[in-house]
Amino acid sequence: MRLNRNERPFFACMAFFFFLVVIASDAPGGGQGNLAIKRDLVWSWPECEVDSPRFSDDGNFIVLATRVHWPDGAEAEGLPDSFFTKFEERKQKDPRFADPVIRLIDLHGNQACEVRYGSHPSISPDRRRIVYSHQKKPISGLRLLAETLAGNDIQVFDCEMKKSTTIAEPDAGYFDEPIFLPDGKSIAYTMNEAVNGAYGGPVGIERVDLAGAKKEILVAKDTVPAVRSQGSKPSSGFAALLFGLAMTHDQLVVLQGKHPHSADGMDLPGQYVISITSVFPERNDILSLGQFIRVPEDLSLQSASDGRILVYWQYWRPLSLRTRKWLPDIGPRNTNEKSIYSPDLKYYLVREPQDSPDHFTLYQTAKGERLHTFPKVQDVYDATWSQDSKRLAFVVVPMGATASKYHEDLMVYSVP
Q: 145 near 171, Cβ under 8 Å?
C-alpha cells in the first residue's frame, strides 16, 4: 500500500543522481523491541521528489518515479521571484524538464533502467519490462488535475530493447495504476475521470494483453443519469466508484461503490452500496458492506498473503477470499487507517505522530507492540513492503531540505 501525499502538484526528473548505501542499523529510538532492523539503502535524486516506489517480485530491485520539486502554495510564498524565473526559463528550453521519469534501481543504488515520461510504474517478474501510465502532455509546472492527465495511456517499456509500446489508449479521461497480473500475459489498469472537482479518480478497470490486442472490461465505466431533485435537471455521474484495490498473488480485488436504484429505476446520487469484489481471474462477489447515504472516508484495502486481504472499516479487519468471511482479529484492534501491513501481517508501519507525522514506527501485529522507531525527518510519504515481507521502503523529506535545496530520500530496510 502506498501513502500518497495529500497533493503533489508537479511531476519531475533531473539529469544527475546521488545515492548513499548504508548497511548499519539505525540508532535506537524510544520504546524499541529486540528486532534487528538493518538499513540497506538511502537513495535520492537532486532537487527531486520520489514517488510510487514498488519492489520487484524478488525484492532486489525497486521501480519508482522522480520529478523536480516545484514549490507551490504556502511553500512558494517565501521564495523570491528569481527562483521561479529560473524554472520558467528551463521550461522554455525544455517543456518536459520537470515531467516524471521512471527509474529501476537495485539495492546498491545502481540504475538499471530509465523511462521518460510516466508515473505509477510496475515491473514484470523477469524485470525486463516496466508498465506505466504514460504522461502524454508536457506537465512541467502544472498541477495533477484530470485535465492535465487527460489522454494518458498505458505503455510497456522493454529495458533490454530500450523501446516503449503503447498497449491501451483511452477514449476519454486517462488510464493509471497499471499492474502485471498473475497470469503473466496481461495488465490491469484503472480508467479515470474527474470525480472530485478538477481532481481525477478511478471509475473503472480494464485488462489488456501484453500485445495490446485484446481488451476486457473488469469494472465498467458507465455514465448514468441521476435522480431529479426539486425540479432541477438530472445530473450525470458514474455507476461505480472505486475506493480501493488489492492485488493478491492470484486475485485482483476491488472495494467498489455503486449507486442504488430508486423506485422508478433512477440512480440515487450521493448514495452507494459498498461491496468487495474479486474481478480477476474471474468475477466473484466477496462481501457487501451495505448501503451508505454518503461514502465513509475511512474505507480502504490492503493485500495480504494466504488468500487474505485487510479491510479498513472503523479498524483493520482480515477477510478470507476463500470463505468470503471475516477472520478473527490478528491482534489488538488497530484504528489507524494509515497503517501499512507487511503481506504476512506480522508487522505494520505507522506514520507518527498522527496529526503531523515526522517519523515511521514499526509495530508487531499480534501484540500491538512497538518494535522500532525510525529517525525523525521533516515529513514522511510513500511506503511499501516487498512480497516476502522481508524488506520495507519509504520516502521521506530529510532534515535540512528546503524549497530551494530540495530532495527526498528513499529508505530501504531489511526486517528479520
A: no
18-414 has CATH 2.130.10.10 classification = yes
Listed residue (257, 415, 287, 274) closest to 343, CA to CA: 415
Which pTM value belongs to this model?
0.88
Residue 316 has φ and ψ, to the nearest 5°, of: -80, 125
Strand duo 252-258 + 391-397: pairing? unpaired
* CA distances from residue 32 to 26, 39, 187, 357, 385 in whole angstroms, order as listed: 11, 16, 41, 18, 21
* Candidate from 81-85, 240-244, 286-290, 303-307 with smallest mean pLDDT: 240-244
Q: Is the dihedral of CA 354, 46, 129, 109 positive or negative?
A: negative
∠ CA(80), CA(83), CA(88), 5° rounding? 130
* 354 close to 6: Cβ distance less than 8 angstroms: no
Tens of pLDDT, residues 189-212: 999 999 888 999 999 999 999 999
Domain boundaries, the chain: 18-414
